[in-house]
Specification:
With 312 residues, this protein is an all-beta fold. It has no helices and 29 strands. It comes from Prescottella soli.
Length: 312
C-alpha cells in the first residue's frame, strides 16, 4: 500500500489524532510534547508535557487528553531509535488534559486508590464523557510491572481499576456500537476484548485464564510485538505491528483480514494508526523509530471517534 511522508524529525511520535482542518496531533515521547502537524509537514509544539506522553484522545470539552507514561529511555540500535525502560528522572505516570488554544496543561490523575499510575499508554473516550486507558507498567531490566486498564471520569473526579494482571497492555479502542472494549498486548502479540456493560464496567470470562479476565480475539502466528490500535467503521481492529512493521487488520470474529506491510527506511517501529478526512479514508500512521508521520489512502473508512467530529 503506497503512502506519503507527511513530516520527519519527530522524537518518537505516537498517539496521532486527525483534526477536521487536516492537521494531525501527535505526542513525542522523547521530546515530552504535544505537537501539531499541518498538511504540508510543518510542526508546532502545542504544549510542553514532560515525562513521556504516549497516547492522545479528544475529550467532550475539546481538550486533548494525554496518557503520559512518565518517560522512557531513548536507545539507538542499527540506526533506529527505540523507547523503553525507566529513566533516572522518572517520577510516575499521569493523565493530563491540554487546552488546544492556550497550551495549558492540567494533570487529572496520578494514582488510583493509592496506587500510582506507572506507565499510561493509550486512551479512548466513550459516549458518557469518561475514558478507558491502558497502563503498560514499567521495567527496570530485572522486573516488570503487570499491566492494568483503568476508567476515568473526564472531569477528573473519579478513577477506577477495571482490569489487571496483563502482559504489557498497549492499544485500546471501542467497537463502533460501544459494546466491546479491545486491548492489544505488546509482548504476547494478542488482542483481548470485554463486553461493556455500563460506563466503566466491563465483563470478560469467556476465555479460561484470559489476560485481565478478557476474552481472546487474536494472536499473531508470526514474530512481532503489538503496539496501539484503531478501529475501522465496519468494526475491524487495526493493530500496529512492531519488528514485522505494518498493520494487522483483524475482524470482530478474530480473523486476520489482511496485513498491511509498511517499509519506510526499514523502520521497525510502526506504532499507531488513526483516520481523518471527509470520508475517514485517510489513515495516519506513526513510524516512530525514524520519527515520521505517514499518510495513506486507506481501503476502508476509519471509525469517527467520540468527540472527534465536534472539533472545529
Amino acid at each position: 500500500m503506497s503512502f506519503n511522508v507527511v513530516t520527519t524529525g519527530l522524537k518518537f511520535p505516537e498517539g496521532p489524532v486527525a483534526l477536521p482542518n487536516g492537521d494531525v496531533l501527535v505526542v513525542e515521547i522523547h521530546r515530552g510534547t504535544l505537537t501539531r502537524v499541518t498538511a504540508d509537514g510543518t510542526t508546532t509544539v502545542v504544549a510542553e508535557l514532560g515525562g513521556g506522553p504516549n497516547g492522545t484522545a479528544i475529550g467532550p470539552d475539546g481538550r486533548a487528553y494525554i496518557a503520559n507514561c512518565g518517560g522512557m529511555n531513548a536507545t539507538e540500535a542499527y540506526g533506529y531509535v527505540f523507547a523503553g525502560g525507566t529513566p533516572e528522572d522518572y517520577t510516575g505516570g499521569s493523565i493530563q488534559a491540554v487546552d488546544l488554544e492556550t497550551g495549558e496543561v492540567e494533570t487529572l490523575y496520578t494514582e488510583c486508590d493509592g496506587v500510582e499510575l506507572r506507565g499510561p499508554n493509550d486512551i479512548v473516550f466513550d459516549t458518557h464523557g469518561g475514558f478507558y486507558f491502558t497502563d503498560h507498567g514499567k521495567s527496570n531490566g530485572l522486573t516488570s510491572d503487570q499491566g492494568r486498564v483503568y476508567y476515568g471520569a473526564g472531569d477528573g473526579s473519579s478513577i477506577r481499576l477495571v482490569a489487571s494482571e496483563m502482559n504489557g497492555p498497549n492499544g485500546i479502542g471501542l467497537s463502533p456500537d460501544g459494546t466491546r472494549l479491545y486491548v492489544s498486548e505488546t509482548y504476547t502479540a494478542r488482542v483481548w476484548w470485554w463486553e461493556v456493560t455500563g460506563p466503566g464496567e466491563i465483563a470478560g470470562g469467556r476465555t479460561l485464564a484470559g489476560s485481565g479476565g478478557g476474552n481472546f480475539l487474536y494472536a499473531s502466528p508470526d514474530f512481532r510485538y503489538f503496539d496501539s490500535l484503531g478501529v475501522e467503521a465496519n468494526g475491524n481492529v487495526c493493530v500496529a505491528s512492531l519488528a514485522t512493521p505494518g498493520i494487522c487488520v483483524i475482524s470482530p470474529d478474530g480473523e486476520l483480514v489482511e496485513f498491511v506491510s509498511i517499509d519506510t527506511d526499514g523502520d521497525p517501529g510502526i506504532t499507531n494508526i488513526c483516520w481523518g478526512g471527509q470520508d475517514m479514508r485517510t489513515a495516519y500512521i506513526t513510524a516512530s523509530s525514524t520519527g515520521k508521520l505517514l499518510r495513506f489512502d486507506w481501503p476502508r473508512a476509519g471509525l469517527v471517534l467520540n468527540n472527534q467530529a465536534a472539533l472545529v
